TrEMBL record:
It comes from Saccharibacillus brassicae. Keywords: Membrane, Transmembrane, Transmembrane helix. This is ABC transporter permease. It comes from the Bacteria. The chain crosses the membrane at residues 40-65, 130-151, 163-187, 216-239, 245-266. Pfam families: ABC2_membrane_6 (PF06182).
Length: 278
């Protein structure tokens, strides 16, 4: 019993030290980015404008035709905003996972393997991104879309905490997809083309109602590449009252499951990793 207690104590101490180190690395990354404040401000403004212009083009078309597959422009805006927030959280904390290809090609991953910490813990905070542009864009669309639906009585104030829950579970799902995609790099080295499909194209597709697509594609976006769990599935309940309150239990369980699968796949992949020799 004493040995078990000592093992638990040592594990807790290790976890606390990891968390403290992670916070330190994040602060260091933020300070390095804030040294170039003009570039940071310009990048933020441009990112917000680009994202807003993309939705405005869709909004103009929807304003012309009224709705798409029964989804109003405000509901589509909600899908856009939830996806943007979830992606922002994922890329804020896990941006280097998305850029693992560079570490593989240039041999930098070998350096991380020599560290006394887990590779993923060392990798993630190396480029902590403060994505204010995406936050501004997502916030503007969310306030407009959800505010209008609150005013019309389509949703109640309960939609706000429910949306926060959807955003957080969605961020976990997107991180898991990104981590699983990056893991293929341990065998292929180059993963940018795969990321275009599993992350960029899939996330773009999920900004719209999945009923727009053939049944096989909608099923794909809910299972194999489950980006539909990020915004579409919760929106069915939050905005339309479809499904049931159980959808939040499903989202939580699905987020934990895909994260566990992605982490197991990552550990398997890194055990098979062979150095580039550079």
């Amino acid at each position: 019993m004493t040995k078990i207690a000592n093992d638990r104590t040592s594990r807790l101490r290790a976890v606390r030290s990891y968390i403290k180190l992670y916070r330190l690395l994040i602060r260091t990354s933020i300070r390095s980015r804030m040294q170039y404040r003009f570039n940071f401000a310009l990048e933020t403004i441009l990112a917000a404008l680009i994202q807003l212009s993309e939705f405005l083009m869709v909004a103009i078309v929807l304003a012309k035709f009224g709705s798409v597959q029964g989804w109003s422009v405000h509901e589509v805006g909600y899908l856009f905003a939830v996806m943007t927030f979830s992606k922002t959280i994922y890329r804020t904390f896990g941006d280097e996972v998305h850029h693992l290809e560079r570490y593989l090609v240039e041999g930098e991953l070998d350096q991380l393997l020599t560290k006394p910490l887990p590779v993923l813990l060392t990798l993630m905070p190396r480029s902590f991104r403060v994505m204010f542009g995406e936050v501004i864009q997502g916030g503007a669309i969310m306030i407009w879309a959800l505010g209008t639906m609150l005013g019309s009585g389509q949703v109640t104030w309960w939609a706000i905490p429910q949306t926060v829950f959807a955003v957080l579970t969605g961020a976990v799902v997107l991180f898991a997809i990104g981590l699983a995609t990056a893991t293929f790099g341990f065998w292929t080295t180059r993963i940018s083309m795969l990321q275009n499909m599993t992350e960029d194209a899939a996330q773009t597709a999920a900004r719209y109602p999945l009923t727009l697509y053939p049944d096989w594609m909608g099923g794909l976006l809910l299972t194999a590449i489950p980006v539909g769990l990020v915004n579409y599935l919760p929106a069915l309940y939050i905005l339309r009252g479809e499904l049931g309150i159980w959808v939040f239990l499903l989202l939580a369980a699905a987020a934990c499951l895909v994260l566990l699968i992605a982490l197991r796949f990552w550990m398997f992949g890194i055990s098979r990793y062979q150095s580039t020799g550079s």
